[in-house]
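Hi everyone,

Forwarding the result from last night's run.
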Amino acid sequence: MVASNVSPSHELRRHPRSLVSGPVTVGWTDAAGVNRISRGKYVNASETGVCLELRDPLPERGFINFRCEGLRLSGSGSVRHCGRKQMTWTVGVEFCGGLSWRPSACG
């Protein structure tokens, strides 16, 4: 896994994203109260959030628990957006509870 910063001139995010990739496991409770688990991959990360690609859509504004193996990062987050991308769902997650990540944390 190699981290590289992504910072196009039109970028409006508070923190730059790093292109990283690896397996992620996500858990959440669906609208019916059923505990669900999905596996996918993370595709970029910043100090305050991570972008995931999953097989299942997640409810926007919902809370999830996740574990990004290669980043040594696990915790909870809030789903900020979820959109279809071909056969997967792209999910933007904002970290909760003071969780943060920096590229040096994956070394």
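The chain has a mean pLDDT of 88.

Cheers,
N.
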